Amino acid sequence: MINFYKLWKFFSAYSFDVVIGAVSMGLFACKVLEIPIDILWLLILAGAVWIVYTSDHLVDGFSLKKNAFLFRRKIHVKHKNLLLSLVFLFSIIVFLISYLYFSSVIFFSGLTLIFIVCLYLLLIHFLGNKKFFYFFKEMLVAAIYIGGIWLIPLEKYDNIPPVTVLMIITILFIYAVSEGLIASIYDYDVDKKEKFKSFSIYFGKQNTEKFVNSLLIFSIAISLIIFTFLKAPNYRAAYLILAVLGLILFIFNIKSNGNSGNKNLYRYLGDIAFWIPGILYFFIN
After folding, report:
1. How far apart are CA 38 and CA 27, in angstroms?
2. DSSP readout, 161-188?
3. Contact indicator for 153, 30 with CB cutoff of 8 Å
4. Greater confidence, 66 or 166?
5. What is the DSSP string of 201-240?
6. Burial class of residue 154, CB neighbours in 10 A (0-12, 13-18, 19+)
7. How would residue 250 be classed by pLDDT, with cut points 50, 70 and 90?
8. What backbone torsions phi and psi does residue 38 show, to the nearest 5 degrees?
9. Among candidate residues 259, 79, 106, 245, the one with its CA nearest the CA of residue 175
10. Separation between Cα atoms, residue 214 and residue 255, nearest integer Å
């Protein structure tokens, strides 16, 4: 009999859930801006997200080596040579396709994002023991994630995006920061055992939970207020989805203090929260 929980552990550990979430968010961005969906772009987006997250996990694994207890870090240490080879190979493929397919503006914007990712990985090495860095780190990761997803849709939009769209991007950025912080709460005990530095380790588990709750309550409230006053159907649908996504993240944050079994369940469900915008948008709109 297939052990789906075990399969999902591997699926999540290799960041495939994050990749699907990014593609779902890309679909959401296209629907919000009412532009055609570009399949090749979605494939490039998926590859780029996998490269970034796998590189980040490899850096974490290298820093811990044999002291890694978290399943994701253990398998990145164990299969580091294969994963490094795949990261190198996919990086070349993504680079070449992007160069041949996208405009020079998009290509060089993408290179800027790559530079920021490399800078981020260097900062982990040199500033990984600095408390202030972990506040900056979560914002930087969220900015790279959201920026990478919305870069092409905004370029294809061919107009200055209205305030309503900028607010959607801002709220998604807040949700991306929140999801990263929620993950650090769920990983708190293992991080402490590994002596791995994270936001919740530096600032405290309860403080992190309160901070996330504040971010989410604010974002949900803003989403519902804007939803109430907007008339455009596509934007109304988008803000309703944002409110639902925020509520789900809020529940996952509250559940972070449950027993170990439930915590694992909610931890994995939290990882797929960003599948929701793209999926729901096709049903609502």
Report:
1. 9
2. PPHHHHHHHHHHHHHHHHHHHHHHHHTH
3. yes
4. 166
5. HHH-HHHHHHHHHHHHHHHHHHHHHHHHH---HHHHHHHH
6. buried
7. very high
8. -100, 110
9. 245
10. 16
Cα(250)–Cα(266) distance, rounded to whole angstroms?
A: 11
Spacing of C-alpha 120 from chain mean position:
15
Q: What is the DSSP string of 48-68?
A: HHHHHHHHHHHHHHHHHGGG-
d(CA 75, CA 12): 12
Tell which residue, 79, 85, 22, has the closest CA to residue 50.
Answer: 22
Alpha-carbon span 19 to 46, nearest angstrom: 5
Which two structure tokens, joined as six digits, stand for 1?
A: 């009999």
Q: At what angle do helices 80-101 and 39-64 cross, to 10 degrees?
A: 150
Which residue reads 């593609």 in tokens?
Answer: 23
What pTM was estimated for this model as a whole? 0.87
Do the Cβ atoms of 146 and 115 come closer than 8 Å?
A: no
Handedness of CA 96, 98, 100, 103 (dihedral sign): negative
**110-114, 150-154, 224-228: range with highest mean pLDDT:** 224-228
Q: H or E stretch including 256?
A: none
Q: What are phi and psi for residue 14, nearest 5 degrees?
A: -90, 15
Other C-beta atoms closer than 10 Å to the C-beta of 273 total 21
What are the structural domain ranges in the chain?
A: 14-29+36-278
Integer-rounded Cα radius of gyration of the chain:
19
The identity of residue 266, as a single letter, is Y
Instruction: Tell me: pLDDT of 1 over 50.
Output: no
* Cβ–Cβ < 8 Å for 60, 196: yes
